[in-house]
């Protein structure tokens, strides 16, 4: 079954939400960070049926539309157990610090990711990679069939995620990228939380933080 993905930059930080769809017009949504109405309008226009929301981590700019989508479609939200309390805590998710006039929260996740392994949702299969460093519960979702990894804020085109937020660690992030993400095939598309797509091979050869 052929899979296609769509990048949707949303909100003031233009955080990338991704919609991965199959031929049956089922889809999985990654990191619905803001502008829930815009995201839902896109899903309706495309006639898509969401099956789940997968969060790479629980910073405020990745979770702002979680409840909009979950409530509209009655679907589960997946999040790593290390950040299970972040959705409801503006201090942990960063909105208290960065959003002057607004604290962003969401209801608890429906499914907690406890370890690396295979995750199957309908016809979609992902390898869950624990990639902490940007945040303690950061995970990346590798979909072999799509030839892509949804990496959140771990790895960007020619850059890496910041590590100066609560629970961040530069050394952990370097290990996550080099031991987990760089173990994927070079032609794997890296679908990051911000900015354009890149590839594992390109970042191995060109990323100045990883020379």
- Helix amount: 10-25%
Assign the CATH superfamily. Ribonuclease Z/Hydroxyacylglutathione hydrolase-like
Give the termini distance in whole angstroms: 37 Å
- CATH architecture grouping: 4-Layer Sandwich
Count of DSSP H/I helices: 6
Form type: globular
Give the biggest sheet.
6 strands, mixed
Task: Please report the first level of CATH classification, the CATH class.
Answer: Alpha Beta
The total count of strands amounts to 14
- Which stretches are low in confidence, meaning pLDDT under 50 for 5 or more residues running? none
Which structural category do the helix and sheet elements fall into?
Answer: alpha/beta
Helix-strand string:
EEEHEHEHHEEEEEEEHEEH
How would you describe the overall organization of this protein?
- Keywords: Hydrolase, Metal-binding, Zinc.
- The protein has a single domain (4-210), classed as Ribonuclease Z/Hydroxyacylglutathione hydrolase-like (Metallo-beta-lactamase, Chain A, 4-Layer Sandwich), CATH 3.60.15.10.
- It is 21% helix and 30% strand.
- The protein is globular.
- The chain starts with a strand and ends in a 5-residue tail after the last helix.
- The protein has a six-stranded mixed sheet, covered by helices on one side. It has a six-stranded mixed sheet with strand order 7-8-9-10-13-14.
- By secondary structure, it is of the alpha/beta class.
- A hairpin with a 2-residue loop joins β11 (155-156) and β12 (159-160).
- The mean pLDDT is 95.
- The chain is built from six helices and 14 strands.
List the helices and strands and how they pair.
Layout: E1 4-10, E2 15-21, E3 26-30, H1 36-46, E4 49-54, H2 66-73, E5 77-80, H3 90-93, H4 95-98, E6 111-113, E7 117-121, E8 124-130, E9 139-143, E10 148-152, E11 155-156, E12 159-160, H5 170-180, E13 189-192, E14 198-199, H6 200-206
Parallel strand pairs: 3-4, 4-5, 5-6, 10-13
Antiparallel strand pairs: 1-2, 2-3, 7-8, 8-9, 9-10, 11-12, 13-14
Helix pairs in contact: 1-2
Protein name: MBL fold metallo-hydrolase
Keywords: Hydrolase, Metal-binding, Zinc
InterPro entries: MBL_Glyoxalase_II, Metallo-B-lactamas, RibonucZ/Hydroxyglut_hydro
């Amino acid at each position: 079954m052929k899979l296609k993905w769509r990048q949707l930059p949303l909100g003031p930080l233009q955080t990338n939400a991704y919609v991965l769809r199959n031929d049956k017009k089922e889809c999985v949504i990654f990191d619905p960070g803001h502008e829930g109405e815009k995201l839902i309008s896109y899903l309706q226009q495309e006639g898509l049926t969401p099956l789940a929301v997968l969060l790479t981590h629980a910073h405020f700019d990745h979770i702002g539309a979680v409840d909009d989508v979950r409530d509209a479609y009655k679907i589960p939200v997946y999040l790593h157990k290390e950040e299970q309390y972040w959705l409801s805590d503006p201090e942990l998710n960063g909105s208290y610090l960065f959003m002057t006039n607004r604290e962003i929260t969401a209801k608890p996740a429906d499914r907690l990711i406890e370890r690396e392994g295979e995750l199957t949702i309908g016809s979609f299969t992902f390898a869950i990679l624990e990639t902490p460093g940007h945040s303690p519960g950061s995970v990346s979702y590798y979909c072999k069939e799509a030839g892509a990894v949804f990496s959140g804020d771990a790895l960007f085109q020619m850059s890496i995620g910041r590590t100066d937020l609560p629970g961040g660690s530069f050394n952990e992030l370097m290990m996550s990228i080099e031991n987990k993400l760089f173990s994927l095939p070079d032609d794997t598309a890296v679908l990051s939380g911000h900015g354009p797509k890149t590839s594992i091979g390109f970042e191995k050869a060109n990323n100045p933080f990883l020379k």
